[in-house]
UniProtKB/TrEMBL annotation:
Cysteine disulfide links: C35-C115, C68-C73, C121-C314, C200-C225
EC number: 1.11.1.7
Record gene name: LOC106865437
Biological function: Removal of H(2)O(2), oxidation of toxic reductants, biosynthesis and degradation of lignin, suberization, auxin catabolism, response to environmental stresses such as wounding, pathogen attack and oxidative stress.
Pfam family, any one: peroxidase
Upper classification of the organism: Eukaryota, Viridiplantae, Streptophyta, Embryophyta, Tracheophyta
Broad class of enzyme this protein falls into: oxidoreductase
Gene3D superfamilies: 1.10.520.10, Peroxidase, domain 2
Protein name per its UniProtKB record: Peroxidase
Cellular component GO terms held in the UniProt record: extracellular region; plant-type cell wall
Presence of the UniProt keyword Secreted in the record: yes
Active site positions, chain numbering: H66
Cofactor(s) for this UniProt protein: heme b; Ca(2+)
Keywords: Calcium, Disulfide bond, Glycoprotein, Heme, Hydrogen peroxide, Iron, Metal-binding, Oxidoreductase, Peroxidase, Pyrrolidone carboxylic acid, Secreted, Signal
Residue sites binding substrate per the record: P163
Amino acid sequence: MGFLLARCIIGAATLLCVLPPCQAKFTSKFYGKTCPNLGAIVRSVMAPAVAKEPRMGASIIRLFFHDCFVNGCDGSILLDDTPTFTGEKNAGANVNSVRGYEVIDAIKTQVETACKATVSCADIIALASRDAVNLVGGPTWNVQLGRKDSRTASQSAANANLPGPGSSAASLVSAFAAKGLSAREMTALSGAHTVGRARCVLFRGRIYSDPNINATFAAARQQTCPQAGGDGNLAPFDDQTPDAFDNAYYKNLMAQRGLLHSDQELFNGGPQDALVRKYSGNAGIFAGDFAKAMVKMGGLMPVAGTPTEVRLNCRKVN
């Protein structure tokens, strides 16, 4: 399956902003003159990071999603808390599930050496997430660039906007629709859970009480996640090919082997069932839809009037 995914290349000449008002016209050649080696620099850091720890690929994908879903793709998730500022890193959905900040820091350091005060942290996240997918066997696409970094962040917005592991199918559709993303795009983007791992505290409720679960799968996960304790113990979203970006996630859902309640909700007698079947049977269609949805999600922008800049250090404003 991997070679089919890797060959699926999605390109776009321009990207329209998903939410009004449209603040910028992006292009994959935005840094063509000002930082021509940007793509190579990002890849040079991402490749060894993922080779050392394949889970890091999934972590960077999640970082991109959690950035974009809170006030747009603006790098706000990277801002550290200070005595006078509370950012997004310690929001409920981020504090124990988002990681990889040090990889973005390493990329930023090299980018600043090559192209000082030119490339936004938000654009670095977008490029790194594309490489993260591709480095674990998934598709590639032309990343649309030209974002700026927000000078602010909102923990309350992160808590309000990011779907949780107990979300229903209806709430997932609604949350993505609020960002201009369709139910099909939500289902495709959920396929990012074909790689990575989750903490016991996020799936304990499912493996002990959900009716729509394979009994053998539940028993195996209970060995990792006891009813009391072990909150930080990890289990793979896909226990067949946990570090390979393929369509096994959807095959698992059809077998009632989704790790999170929100995963299994995509195949639970609802409208998403047909698409799950399609993706499970055709890795190329999934890869194409996923890449297009990532491009579209990357067009989520901060509201007009949000103060922005190109940060010199991704963890703090200039």
